[in-house]
Design brief:
Layout: H1 2-13, H2 18-34, H3 43-53, E1 61-69, E2 104-109, H4 118-124, E3 129-134, H5 136-150, E4 159-164, E5 167-172, E6 177-183, E7 189-190, E8 203-206, H6 211-214, E9 222-225, E10 236-240, E11 249-252, H7 255-273, E12 280-284, H8 323-338, E13 343-346, H9 349-353, H10 372-376, H11 392-398
Parallel strand pairs: 3-6, 3-9, 8-10, 9-12, 12-13
Antiparallel strand pairs: 1-2, 4-5, 5-6, 7-8, 10-11
């Protein structure tokens, strides 16, 4: 910006100066080389380039702000054009007709988020391995990132995703980057570990066992963890010993207690095994649901079904978001920071709270077909947990 201003000052103050002659020579060269391509070279475009280069986030509160409607630069990709979209988040494919949810941009307090640049991101990730570890919301986050970068990799053979049990590996060969997803909803071992057959009513976890999973992502350069929603079940059992051992010990526990125990197992493993000089870690805070419409003024028993607008009341907080679990995760992350691990808590909860309109509702593939009773009352089977894509998780990735 300063360089451009100096050029403008020279133009204004002296048509016969040496500086002006140099500027004219440069501009003539630019016109000579680019004129045949109908390229519009202007001071405005120069300014825009320098704005990106000089961008500062000083004083930016990334996680507090407001959603701004923007049908000019949004969405960042098209659902049907993403090579890696999955049916769980394909709201348009499954019949959603209102597309307003795709046009909201997050405006943090104190700054603007620059427009996503897939090439810049891929260059930063060159020769690295990124692993998302978690549940279907973590997968929601991962698919969002693949869709964001998909159109920036023009050659189809240079972008491939392969399924290896709990691990799905995406490779962008031109950049030698791997962006993977590893299914592990409770972080520790459990009877929910099968990436397909995990709908288990009585959830049992081996609260001190993580090695079988962790060895799959120990060599990552960036680890992104998500573990919250699966801990909300009222009935979960802790297990010491193996699932096959007749002498195994079961213990019932409070929600916060078992969550903290699992996170301590996870944090102890990170502390003992990760390379502090290599690996950067992010822990994603809880992704809020919108299951109870009474929270934002609807009748009790209603939910995100038929919602098409965000909540505009700043500071809105739904009752379904467990602050005790959030504080527990924050405490464990802070302890790891004190042990010199490169870890950050990404607090996406508040900004996502506003987006009651962003869920699939009834517009997704239902692995268990709705009953006749549910079809007569769609509120009963609306998905108010996951997120349509393009949508809210794109902002998580932008931040």
């Amino acid at each position: 910006m300063k360089g451009t201003e100096r050029v403008l000052q020279k133009v204004a103050h002296g048509y016969h100066s040496v500086g002006f002659m140099l500027v004219m020579v440069v501009m003539m060269v630019v016109v000579y080389f680019y004129g045949d391509n109908n390229t519009d070279i202007s001071f405005d475009s120069i300014k825009e380039t320098e704005k990106v280069e000089d961008y500062s986030f000083e004083g930016c509160d990334f996680f507090n702000g407001s959603w701004v409607y923007d049908n000019t630069s949004r969405p960042l990709y098209k659902e049907r054009q993403c090579s890696f979209m999955v049916d769980d988040y394909s709201c348009e494919k499954f019949g959603r007709k209102d597309f307003e949810y795709q046009y909201w941009k997050w405006k943090p307090h104190g700054c603007h988020l620059p427009r996503f640049n897939g090439t810049a991101l891929l260059e930063k990730l060159r020769d690295k391995r990124v692993v998302f570890v978690g549940d279907s919301l973590g997968k929601n986050h991962w698919v969002s990132l693949l869709c964001l970068i998909d159109s920036w990799i023009l050659e189809p053979s240079h972008k491939v995703a392969e399924w290896h049990g709990s691990l799905i590996t995406f490779k962008a060969s031109e950049y030698n980057v791997s962006i993977d997803f590893y299914w592990e909803p409770l972080l520790v071992e459990s009877n929910c570990d099968d990436p397909v057959k995990h709908r288990v009513y009585d959830r049992i976890m081996k609260i001190e066992s993580i090695e079988r999973h962790a060895k799959q992502w120990i060599n990552a350069d960036i680890l992104i963890f998500d573990s919250y929603t699966w801990w909300l079940e009222p009935n979960m059992t802790l297990l010491w010993g193996s699932f096959e051992n007749p002498n195994r010990t079961y213990v019932e526990s409070r929600r916060v207690t078992r969550y903290e125990m699992a996170l301590r197992t996870w944090s102890n493993w990170l502390d003992a095994h990760l390379n502090r000089e290599k690996t950067r870690i992010f822990f994603i805070s809880l992704s809020p649901d919108h299951k109870e419409g009474g929270d934002w003024g609807k009748r009790m028993g209603e939910n995100c079904y038929n919602e098409t607008q965000p909540i505009m009341k700043e500071g809105y907080w739904g009752k379904g978001s467990d602050t005790d679990l959030m504080r527990t995760a924050q405490s464990v992350v802070q302890d790891l920071e004190k042990k010199a691990l490169n870890i950050k808590l990404l607090n996406i909860t508040q900004l996502s709270q506003y987006r009651k309109d962003g869920h699939p509702s009834i517009y997704k593939r239902h692995w268990v077909p709705p009953t006749k009773l549910e079809l007569a009352n769609p509120v009963q089977y609306a998905d108010c947990v996951h997120w349509c894509l393009p949508g809210v998780p794109d902002v998580w990735n932008e931040i």
